[in-house]
């Protein structure tokens, strides 16, 4: 009998990548456009495994309902798991995830945001479409010789550091657990957060979201930064206190911000809201700045990453089905 997977929040690109990888496994995947929530959890009846993404809901009520429906495994096709009540899942159904998709994808996207903001490419694109070929207001700066502060030095950040060094940039790094061997090999300097704030022309965030890092970028930390600093966030939305960021932009303390994540993104990101009014006043304010680029959590979104997500997710399910160790299990 074929193994049944209920797949929620399915987009066309999800279906294409999972169908391709599923040729190896032959699972019976039922794709549902809607996000998993208490109102549609009934669709998990008869499913052996449920596959969800970052904006699906797996709270205690949903987990209990899935367990009652006979679901044996919850498979996240993402790295984050803050939308899952792990305490409720404990002893009822294992939770597995995809710890990494493609570190190159996110590192390269971080650079793309820096370059676009610095050289005003997003503004120039709209101007020339409107027949405006003026250069006024489009001046940038040479990246060569400037200093970038990298907060968090995991796999993604290390790739970005190597890219930025290739541009001739100086690197200041901060991490709770510094990799001194890497720093010595690459000729970079680990510093305190205050030193990083004071010395960086651009600050890029690559640390996980924890109680210690929530709102790491706030009114106090912005005050310590160089005038005209650029801030890039391809990590987690709640690393930045958005209202403090907006004040910094209004006061010209922050010259530009590239945000692929937003602290209240759940109601908007990955969805087409073009026919509706954005009723999130903070997001609407961010979108009003011509020196801010907001994108819809797409830094990971490459062909390679999507293939890796499908491959790892289905392998996680196969490992569970074959009673093998779950190397990507999320344990409370």
From TrEMBL:
Residues 111-299 form the D-isomer specific 2-hydroxyacid dehydrogenase NAD-binding domain. This is D-lactate dehydrogenase. Keywords: NAD, Oxidoreductase. Residues 6-330 form the D-isomer specific 2-hydroxyacid dehydrogenase catalytic domain. Belongs to the D-isomer specific 2-hydroxyacid dehydrogenase family. PANTHER family: 2-HYDROXYACID DEHYDROGENASE HOMOLOG 1-RELATED. SUPFAM superfamilies: Formate/glycerate dehydrogenase catalytic domain-like, NAD(P)-binding Rossmann-fold domains. GO terms for molecular function: D-lactate dehydrogenase (NAD+) activity. It is an enzyme of class 1 (oxidoreductase). Its EC number is 1.1.1.28. InterPro entries: D-isomer_2_OHA_DH_cat_dom (IPR006139), D-isomer_DH_CS (IPR029753), D-isomer_DH_NAD-bd (IPR006140), D-LDH-like (IPR058205), NAD(P)-bd_dom_sf (IPR036291). It comes from Parabacteroides faecis. Pfam families: 2-Hacid_dh, 2-Hacid_dh_C.
């Amino acid at each position: 009998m074929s193994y049944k997977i209920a797949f929620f929040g399915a987009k066309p690109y999800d279906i294409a990548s999972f169908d391709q990888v599923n040729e190896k496994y032959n699972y019976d995947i039922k794709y549902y456009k809607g996000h998993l929530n208490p109102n549609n959890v009934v669709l998990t009846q008869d499913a052996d495994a449920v596959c969800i993404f970052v904006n699906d809901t797996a709270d205690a009520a949903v987990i209990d309902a899935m367990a009652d429906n006979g679901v044996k495994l919850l498979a996240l096709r993402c790295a984050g798991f803050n939308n899952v009540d792990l305490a409720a899942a404990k002893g009822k159904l294992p939770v597995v995830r995809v710890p990494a998709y493609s570190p190159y994808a996110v590192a390269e996207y971080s650079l793309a945001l820096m370059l676009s903001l610095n050289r005003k490419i997003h503004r120039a694109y709209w101007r020339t479409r409107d027949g405006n070929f003026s250069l006024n207001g489009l001046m940038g700066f040479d990246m060569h010789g400037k200093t970038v502060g990298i907060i968090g030095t995991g796999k993604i950040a290390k790739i970005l550091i190597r890219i930025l060094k290739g541009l001739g940039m100086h690197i200041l790094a901060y991490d709770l657990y510094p990799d001194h061997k890497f720093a010595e090999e690459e000729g970079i300097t680990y510093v305190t957060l205050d030193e990083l704030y004071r010395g960086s022309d651009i600050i890029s965030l690559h640390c996980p979201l924890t109680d210690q890092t929530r709102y790491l970028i706030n009114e106090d930390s912005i005050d310590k930064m160089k005038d005209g600093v650029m801030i890039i966030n391809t990590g987690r939305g709640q690393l930045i206190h958005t209202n403090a960021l907006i004040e910094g932009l209004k006061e010209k303390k922050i010259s530009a911000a590239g945000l692929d994540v937003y602290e209240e993104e759940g109601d908007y990101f990955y969805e087409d809201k073009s026919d509706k009014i954005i009723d999130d006043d903070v997001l609407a304010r961010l979108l009003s700045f011509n020196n801010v680029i907001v994108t819809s959590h797409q830094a990971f979104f490459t062909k390679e990453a999507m293939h890796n997500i499908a491959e790892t997710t289905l392998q996680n399910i196969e490992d569970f089905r074959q009673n093998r160790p779950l190397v990507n299990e999320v344990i409370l």
